[in-house]
Amino acid sequence: MLSYEKSGVSIDTADAAKKQMAATMATKDPRILHRPGAFASLFDASFPTLRQPVLVMKTEEPGSKQKLVFQRAQKTGASVASIAYDMIHHLIDDIIVVGAQPLAVQDCIVCGKLEKDRVLQLVSAINDACRQNDCHLIGGETSEQPGVLDPGLYILSSSITGVVEKSKILDGSAIQPGDTVLAVPSNGLHTNGYSLVRALLAQHPTLADEPIDSLVTPGAQESFLDAILQPHTCYYRPFKDLFATNCDGLLHGIAHITGGGIAGNLNRILPPTTDALIDLAALRIPTLFKRIRSLGNVPDPDMLRTFNCGIGMTIVCNPAAVPHITKHLASFNLHTYPIGAITPTGAATVHYQNAPLW
């Protein structure tokens, strides 16, 4: 006799997990109008402080980094919460580059076997990451799919909605020749380049435990595996006050440096008749990236295209705003520095000069 549970799906386990998820997500925010377990989420989209509100939306997933996190959890019993922070931080970073205020997140967790404690750990971390950044996890989907995924494997994704005043959208259109390009540091790989790093770990298994300079605790060391599994930096709180004033109109554009590196992301905000000239010798490249390059014999073009090389965001601004921006971000322990400038002729292309100081 067949049953759904014998086929690999336990509705009772899912229902018990969903009840606890609802408790985790409970909020008194009056903008959230649906009750736990509703078929769809309801969010009051009235914005009395905004004259022309524009919704900002994005969907994201944490890539193959999640495989490393779940593999470590299977072997050691370590928490998988970090990958939830990775996903939400990346998601928020993608919308704040236009000056958006994050509002609401929907998650999707697909697994081969629904492990109640693990799923609750993920949802709790997703919810916490949202609340730390002034938004809410308001719903989503948890799907157990035996035969599609092996037990212990999870695929995560999420979507966000934010809002921005139309007149304050930062889309790069204000970028001008002579503007400065500032580098805002990352705390490691963030969520890109993990397919290459997993191949490197497969070739050199002892690398996982190799000590390396920590990017989170200056002067300390941590294992290579711990270093590469640091959750993606979220820049919303450090940037929030910059958005409030737009530095008197002197902040012209922000690019989130993910897959494609500086050249593949900064170009996305450049006006069509400008270029950016980046001095690679100015980059402050952390030891972590140097170790990947040397052990993997990775060519410089691949390093610059695959990894952020220590740059989590680039800010394009009028030179007069540089002292204010660097001082403000330093108060969040983000030691921002100039790496280039906008040039007057071109086709929205990023050019490199000099060689990185590995």
Commentary on this structure:
The protein is of the alpha+beta class. The chain is 33% helix and 23% strand. The chain contains eleven helices and twelve strands. The strands form three sheets. A six-stranded mixed β-sheet has the order 8-10-5-11-9-12. A four-stranded mixed β-sheet has the order 1-4-2-3, with helices on one face. Helix 3 (81-96) runs parallel beside helix 4 and helix 7 (236-249) packs antiparallel against helix 11 (322-330). The protein is globular. It starts with 10 loop residues before the first helix and ends in a 5-residue tail after the last strand. The relative contact order is 0.15. The model has no long low-confidence stretch (mean pLDDT 92).
Can you tag this structure with a few keywords?
358 residues; six-stranded mixed β-sheet; 11 helices
Please specify the SSE layout and strand pairing:
Elements: H1 11-25, E1 53-60, H2 65-76, H3 81-96, E2 101-111, H4 116-131, E3 136-144, E4 154-165, E5 180-185, H5 194-203, E6 211-213, E7 221-223, H6 224-228, H7 236-249, E8 251-256, H8 263-266, E9 275-279, H9 287-296, H10 300-306, E10 311-317, H11 322-330, E11 337-343, E12 349-353
Parallel strand pairs: 2-3, 9-12
Antiparallel strand pairs: 1-4, 2-4, 5-10, 5-11, 6-7, 8-10, 9-11
Helix pairs in contact: 1-4, 3-4, 7-11
